[in-house]
Amino acid sequence: MSWLSISIALVVISIIEAASVNYIKLLGVGPELTLLGVLYFSLNSSKERGAACGLIGGILKMAFSGLNPLILIIYTSIGFLAGMYKEMLYKQLTSARMIVAFAAVIYSNIIYGFLISSLGFPYYKTIFFVSLPSAIYTAVLAPLMFMALDSVTPPREVEYREIIFKKRVFEGRRPQ
Known about the structure:
Blueprint: H1 3-20, H2 33-43, H3 47-65, H4 70-84, H5 94-115, H6 123-152, H7 160-171
């Protein structure tokens, strides 16, 4: 997938998130749609490309929501980790998508909340009343968002290592 199409998709996702943030809130928190876009493109590419997608997503998140520039580092690290561990999980499973989205939102909210405590109440309340509802909400929306991005984006190239991995798993042998 080309950089132009990835950038356009992330810009559209960020605009949708910024425009609908007041309309799709549950329990006072909204989903992290930009982070889901970063996760989708990172899981379908390498760790370097995932880090670049995270940087683009962080810039867009910072521009549209006015967050601290620390969000750039957090999104870049999430994109890098998702690109690095893409072979360890089967991305097409709904449960894997939900778990990855939940972990990414918890990671970003805990790091951001710990380093920038601008929410106005104690840190443990931030975890329970902001991070967990946002992570659950985003994890529930993750399969829908991934299916929408699957239908919009062109199919990706399959790497040789991924073919060998799936062949060994299908044959019942442990991949090495």
